[in-house]
Protein 1
Amino acid sequence: MNRVVCTAAALSEHPLLTHAVGECVGHLLERGGPAPDLVVLGVTEPVVGALEDVHAAVRRLLDPGVLVGVATEGLLGGAQLVERRAAVSMFAVWFAPTPSSRPGAGLQPVRLGTVADADGPVWASPDELAGASGTLVVCLDPDGPSPESLAERLAELAPELSVIGGSVEVARRSGATRLLLDGAVHRDGAVGVLLPAEVPVQLVVSQGFRPFGPALTVTSCERNVVRELGGRPALERLMEAVELLSPEDRSLAAGAVHLGQVVDEPRDDAGPGDYVVRSVLGADRSIGALAIAEPVELGATVRFHLFDAEGATSELASLTPTVGPTGGVLAFLGARRGARLFDVVDRDALTLADRLGSAPLAGLTCVAELGPVGGRGVVHHRSVALVAIG
């Protein structure tokens, strides 16, 4: 096993970018020294034009084994989330050298490109990951091919590979995307790092939903249209479940209802981490059917879900992993959380920091998050995906 000697995280909003970089680099040097095996660097969109200079400075000052750099609209550092203001963050890991480990503790930088297709760009076949195991931490261009198609391709090529990360959130303007990997600048595709299987990691996805009503079996469906649940019209089942809610929760249900499908069947004790949750898009009252955002499997176990700030915070707190004295956590936060969901923009950061104590914590906001549910790589859109190292 690659033993984790140290992790570190730093965030700076200093108005002078050189000072912000210096503050972050100084903290990393104080905590772990030079030459970390991995650094994940983030800058917010207001300073995206300087990312390449920041990246070069970090390479020169820290000399990391693998350096991944991205621009995004929000950065998490400890108990703070900075959105749309100038900021720099860094997350670093140092591993103990072992006789069998390759340079950089066996970490492999990963670049995933795209190719032109009749319908637009698609993912180039990531053949270098064929048969890979371990954990791929990856950051994607949000304007490129769908993360769903990448997750499906990786599942085919490398069934033993766990994938976590997200499509980083950047301003929708020409040239905003920046993905950097060990000195190379990319405007599309994805960049990341492959952690070998012997690196101690925990992967957690908090989707933020809470279930209501009973677990039901899909007894009639066609692609994303669910006709029957437990032998009765799906809409009828939904109305019955809503009637049993509190007045406050019925108001939430009037705004949006979601359907969660158990990934790892059969399960008699499915909990918050066992469902893939998708939106209920509408209903056909004439036949009592529900339209779901993605196809549903016949015979699947499903349950209705609600999403609200209280439930999202409660689930995140319950799923936050425990790390060892040298461990730290890198988070990929759904952009539809933050100020869009909570009355306090830092709610997720505060929740994580409270559970993790003094453990280093850093993160990036994303428009889509990748993380495992029931052992399968799944794309989410309002979740918190965590990789705890050490």
Protein 2
Amino acid sequence: MPLSIRGWKFALLSVTFLSFVAATATLGEAPPDKVSRGAPPSQYWQGVECAACHEDVVNRFAGTRHGKAMEFSGWGEMTCQSCHGDAAEHVSSADPEKIKNPAKLGLLEKNDGCLACHANKPHTRFWAGSTHEVSNVSCLDCHSVHSAGSSEKLLAKATDRELCLSCHSDVRQAQFQRSTHLIRNAWGDSRMSCARCHNPHGSTGEKLLQKATVNETCYQCHAEKRGPFLWEHSPAREDCLNCHRPHGSNNPSLLVQRTTYLCQSCHLQGRHQTIAGRANSVWNINRGCINCHPMIHGSNHPSGILYHR
């Protein structure tokens, strides 16, 4: 029975659709020996001798900062052997023990290999004698040259926060889960990273801070609290940590205590006649002391001696 015009159209559309599906499937398939390979190397990397046996490793390495530096910087002396040593005996024998594997070296040898290029750079200038250096932390404890969890800085974990908290679990459990500094956005990213305030490679400040003092670190974001003020609040000018806990707090604005109790830890008695260590219920409503003294970090108003305005 001959097909109607509608039938012919349906048959033609069906053949076209099936042909498209078949073509798409063919284009999407990769040769079995190329599955799970890294980024395809450039002509430069195809000529690297190590790629003959270590194609996966070389392809992944080609897309990293180290790989790009090796290819494009023009440093003819920078090769795989810069980190792995002379490979002649390894190539001739195919014995994995005949090549230097930085991961299996001692602490000093690991770090010396990295510092051969990275010493005295802005981020490593204060590594010698830093908290991590004297605590026997090696470069490869935090960074992975060939199998990085993050393309940024070749970190061994996906983020620097995840990496830091793998050791600093006390900060994770006790504070970070309550921190307004680390509220996640709609994409699941944190507002801040540990490296925003700390330099893990060493610094001149305490606690590996990027700046010399806690206040200078805080002022990077909270510039409005810097001053100078006509009337300064001494505890705030001395140290932000007198009142705030930057890694997390159950109180508003990362305060170490609720506002009223915090103020009364210094101002035990005054015009409001409170009891030491016990907040007066009259002033413990809403935001307490800050209802009347909002300019607690300092005031430039001529009548601001009590931080009223």
Protein 3
Amino acid sequence: MMKTPDEIGPEAQVFVSDAATGMRGVLVVDSSALGPCGGGTRMLPDLAPTEVADLARAMTYKFAILGLPRGGAKAGIWADPQMHPDRKREVLEAFGRALSTYLQTKEVAVGPDMGVTVGDVSAIYSGARAENVRTGLFERTFEGDAAAYHITGYGVIAAVRAAFYCMGLELDGATVAIEGFGQVGAGAARHAARHGARVVAISTLDGLLYDPHGLDIERLLQLRREVGDRCVSAYGTGERRPASELYALPVDVLVPGARPNAIDEAAVGRVRARLVASGGNITLTPGAEEALFRRGIISVPDFVANSGGAIASWVDMLGGDLPRAFRMMDALIGRLTLEVIEESRQRNVSPYRVAVERARRRVLDARGCSRPSFQQAREQIAGIFARLDGGGAQPALAQA
């Protein structure tokens, strides 16, 4: 199934295959109205083309609402990411060869996503014989983990902090439940705890670990390094519950991180959190977003809350370090969260609706205009980040 285009896109849905390796993949270019496109690459055996297209649209919205000259795209490969590393590399290189025209011209840049690591992305670029413009920021070790285990999760907590400021609440002492304990979940847990929050629940493929008194996040991070998803079993204390119970826990903050549309209108009735900030992409359906709003639960739109990876990718391409990525996330995500929630209150519409309208307006306004090349976009983003480093957008989050 292909996605039916609307007034924004997708502009292209490219299906590729390679008989020698068995590679089957897809690239969805949603919109290049704002500039050359970027997005992650997802590897799963049960990937749906419409899922890839929906994720590409989320990337369009993400770059648009951030105010960055970048379009949205997403790639997908039908395969088991746990295959033998040598075979996985062959598949990734074949995928890169098939998309070489897009990657060599920098019309599209791909990054990591579910089932695809930063190292895997290098294999895609190697197959395409294209320059990978990243400098390795996501792979640099920081406090015992690759920086990727900080970046997006840090941005989620920046959104939570700003939302709590709007709500007149303090993150210090608040209870948090997090779905997933990979790169995003681990980062969210770590940085929530550092702001004084009590992370009471973590779920992985191995189940749900719950302790209303709070979990020892540093201990869980070490266990994750040792045994992966089985860290919730190896922890030894706390309650073990089915992972499906996570959404219904009585917490202040819920950080969902599952596959697209995991929380629909039927599941919303179980949510007991005061605030939802998605670590995953399009984890809530539009109907669920509206249902949360009607219930008085604030939901930070996913393409705002989890935009840290997109921001840090540009910090990486500009040769920046992790502290600079944190500053850019505080500035951009913090400001956007404040603005979206305040406009939501003024208009009495959901934050999701506010954010989508803002993003779509920017994309549609750009149609027919001259769009920047990759080098021009790079220069423009360097200027934006330089202004942010000067304090142009930081005071709003500093209050939070």
